[in-house]
Amino acid sequence: MGSYDERIDLSTADIINIQSDAEKIELFKDTAESLKAQSPSLPSLLLWDEQGLKFFEAVTYTTEYYLTNCEIELLKKHSHQIAQRIESGAIIVELGSGCLRKTKILLQAVDDLRKPVDYYALDLSRSELERTLQEVSPGTFQHVRCHGLLGTYDDGLTWLQQPEIASRPKVVLSLGSTLGSFTRAEAADFFAGFAKAIDHCVNGTTRSEALMIIGVDGCKKGEQVWSAYNDAESRNDQFIKNALEYANRILGKDIFHQSEWDRHGQWNETIGRHE
What we know:
Rossmann fold
């Protein structure tokens, strides 16, 4: 693991390693303890290794996965309105950036308004950050500078609280289906932490607007939602089952065999979500 705020020298991208040295140890501990629980499970972080990120990107291109295209249409329609709210000199941090085809629409709107900002894509894979940041390589924008943050959500939360950037306005961007990984109470706690981190006050007075841009799936059509996560090409299966392979690597043992596992998803009508 790299030390905090260690820059990685890449020819195509400016990426800062903000990973905690204890991260892998914690993931091993969480995985082992989750399997020993009365209702065994696996930490959701196991979904997001390098291969998992690629599998999920493939999911977003399936016919059934409507969320990405809906967000693209919304951003095309409202990106300049959103960009008006982003202050010049702001730091924009995207949680779990993945492919930048949606984000690029918003960044272009900010650039059109000639607002100098720094965009940071936060993700778990160095190679995936390097690949996706090629979409916004130097010269893409005149006023928007793009960087990568290599780390977890917790690492990003810590990074946002650095004294060196305390005075700058901040924007947290969370598109896609991040909220779907949490219960409502967990989601509230998760975003409350980031809201506190970006709320810049001096002597009790707010000097700049703290902004959070969050994508929420409002679809309540059970069949449509179910299909998005149970596609005909089994891309979702590949994505979910890859966590078993990552668990094997973390635990250092060949415990799970994909052929022995099936994945079953269902629409929970009572709480209005896919499980």
